[in-house]
Q: What sequence folds into this?
């Protein structure tokens, strides 16, 4: 993957780190790993250049879902502003069968989140970048560390590699 992306008036393209997840089959695309591949292909059809893609990690669910997740990350480039990209990601989720207003942390065919972008911190009514919980989620950090280990969190100043090490480092047993 890696076609060109939409450009802004000045020709600038923004880079984003996107987290991808799935733990339900899609009737057309198949198993969760295939759903993630199909979602990336859909982004490219919408003029979002997929620059790097992590391996897919199988992870345990959070919350009431019993199904394991396929999780990955991608670095993408586009001329879209953050809210425009978020709207596109939500449209893609809906096309893959996700319903708006569903219960949090249940099984889902597709989940797409903006984790970071090249513009630093960003806040709008329906969007906060960096993603508020990404520092606490190994299922986001592990794939992201494979493709963007030196990308810095604009809030903490730490790289994704450092955040991953902090979250996943073994801790001594308490006595």
A:
């Amino acid at each position: 993957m890696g076609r060109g992306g939409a450009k802004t008036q000045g020709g600038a393209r923004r880079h984003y780190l996107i987290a991808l997840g799935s733990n339900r089959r899609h009737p057309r695309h198949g198993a969760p790993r295939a759903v993630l591949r199909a979602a990336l292909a859909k982004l490219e059809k919408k003029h979002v250049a997929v620059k790097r893609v992590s391996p897919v990690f199988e992870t345990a669910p959070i919350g009431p879902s019993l199904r394991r997740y396929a999780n990955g990350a991608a670095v993408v480039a586009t001329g879209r502003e953050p809210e425009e990209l978020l709207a596109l990601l939500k449209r893609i989720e809906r096309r893959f069968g996700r319903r708006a207003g569903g219960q949090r942390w249940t099984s889902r065919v597709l989940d797409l989140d903006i984790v970071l972008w090249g513009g630093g911190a960003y806040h709008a009514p329906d969007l906060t970048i960096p993603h508020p919980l990404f520092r606490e989620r190994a299922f986001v950090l592990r794939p992201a560390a494979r493709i963007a280990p030196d990308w810095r969190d604009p809030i903490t100043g730490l790289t994704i590699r450092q955040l991953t090490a902090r979250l996943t480092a073994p801790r001594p047993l308490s006595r």
In short: The helical segments are 32-45, 82-95, 138-147, 160-168. The domain at 14-168 is CATH 3.30.70.560 (Alpha-Beta Plaits). The chain has a mean pLDDT of 87. The longest strand covers residues 69-78.
